[in-house]
Amino acid sequence: MGRPVDITATAARRRALMRRIGRGAVLIPAGHERNVETDYIQDNDFRQDNTFYYFTELETQDAFLLMTARGPDSIETVLFLAPRVPSQERWTGLRLGPDSVAVRLSGIAKVLPIDSLEARLRVAPEPVYTPHVQSGTDVVRHNDLKPIVDSMRVVKDADEVARLRRAVDISVAGHVAAMRAARPGMYEYQLEAVLEEGFRSNGADRVGYPSIVGSGPNSTTLHYDVNRRRTEDGDLVVIDAAAEWGQYTADVTRTFPINGKFTPRQKAIYDLVLGAQQAAFDSLRPGVTMRQLDGIARRYMQQHSGTLCGQKTCDDREYFNHGLGHPIGMDVHDVGISRPLEPGMVVTLEPGIYLQAEKLGVRIEDDVLVTAKGAEWLSAGAPRTTDAIEKLMSGR
Q1: I need a surface site. Which of 143, 214, 242, 368 has the fewest CB within 10 A?
Q2: Alpha helices, DSSP H only, in 182-263?
Q3: 83 secondary structure, DSSP code
Q4: If one looks up domain 158-394 in CATH, what number appears?
Q5: CA dist 206 to 8, 42, 243, Å?
Q6: What are the start-end ranges of the H helices in 22-143?
Q7: How many CB atoms lie within 10 A of CB 302?
Q8: Residues 250, 171 contacting (CB under 8 angstroms)
Q9: Which DSSP helix (H) or strand (E) runs through 249?
Q10: Which residues contact 28 (CB under 8 A, 6 or more apart)?
Q11: CATH 3.90.230.10 residue spans of the chain
Q12: Is the pTM value of this prediction over 0.90?
């Protein structure tokens, strides 16, 4: 049946949504199970639709949530579920049906069979909001719910922050395990196996996104995820990978020498990236934008790079060719990138320098919770400094 539902949190989200709607109806469908015969599934065959999950935290397929408001004191929430079919459950496991168990697990007092949805919808107040408005839909009757929900999801409530903390902690455990296991001659996929075993053994539901394990020349490719190269002594390895837990995903990147010891050149580039990340963190507070933090990180690189990147400074787009970070949540690139930061937002800080001619790439990415006075490192459990990385990898 999935993880326990925080019925207080989901009820508060539903109330907040209907206060914004004022009068009307909201219809939110659950996700559908993927077809194991045709979809080439690489992980679970089902992941809940984010909008449905946000308001229910239920991991059940083919369901609907209907909320109606005829005024501030006339709000009704109904969960519609398909009837259980015991013969099918021999293949799928137990499913949630329209009964008292669903009421108890969801915290929603009214749970009805799915075949009664159409009649309920016919008498629902207009307009009807849905997150999946199709082209050709009667736009007078159906409004797009997504912008409203996205704006609500930007600032995380206590339940969401707790889920993100758990996802980050699991991710950190995987990165630490990979660093400890690293040896010259390992294949990238062997490091990936150690990393993801660390995720799974600590309770991850799945990976948050395909794991990036790029060594040597592959460390300079931002989204390299083939992971088939054999590492060589002297390589740097960039691992950008994270776990998902309770439908929320972390996003963590670490760079380390496969042999456990940075060269002076590698250390100089690494420390410049680390300094740029720290400069952004030190400036992070409510009201600042990610664009402003990006500028702060780039200015640090410009002022401290000297001749490390040749005739250009290391902040040049040739070397630091992506943004500083983004929000995380149920999506690894979550909603709210353009909004000024607010307490309760969780974002990444991920500066990088990529020198293709030297087959040398460095990226450091951490997850950060915005607080009332500044920010909190969430992923600090994975070593960030060259000294801490070398100490961990030496086994001391």
Answers
A1: 143
A2: 188-201
A3: P
A4: 3.90.230.10
A5: 26, 10, 6
A6: 50-56, 86-92, 100-106, 117-122
A7: 15
A8: yes
A9: strand 248-249
A10: 49, 51, 52, 55, 64, 65, 66, 130, 131, 145
A11: 158-394
A12: yes
Q: Is beta strand 212-215 parallel, antiparallel or unpaired with respect to 206-207?
A: unpaired
Tell me where in the chain the CATH 3.40.350.10 domain(s) lie: 7-153
pLDDT tens for the 396 residues of the chain, in order = 578 999 999 999 999 999 999 999 999 999 988 776 676 666 777 899 999 999 999 999 989 999 999 877 789 999 999 998 888 888 888 889 999 999 999 999 999 999 999 999 999 999 999 997 554 444 445 799 999 999 999 999 999 999 999 999 999 999 999 999 999 999 999 999 999 999 999 999 999 999 999 999 999 999 999 999 999 999 999 999 999 999 999 999 999 999 999 999 999 999 999 999 999 999 999 999 999 999 999 999 999 999 999 999 999 999 999 999 999 999 999 999 999 999 999 999 999 999 999 999 999 999 999 999 999 999 999 999 999 999 999 985
Written as six digits, the tokens of 65 are 């949530």
Give residue 116's identity as a one-letter amino acid code: S
- DSSP annotation of 43 reads S
CATH code of domain 7-153: 3.40.350.10
Collect all residues with Cβ–Cβ distance below 8 Å to 135 and sequence separation of at least 6. Answer: none
- Cα dihedral: 103, 107, 112, 117 (round 10): -160
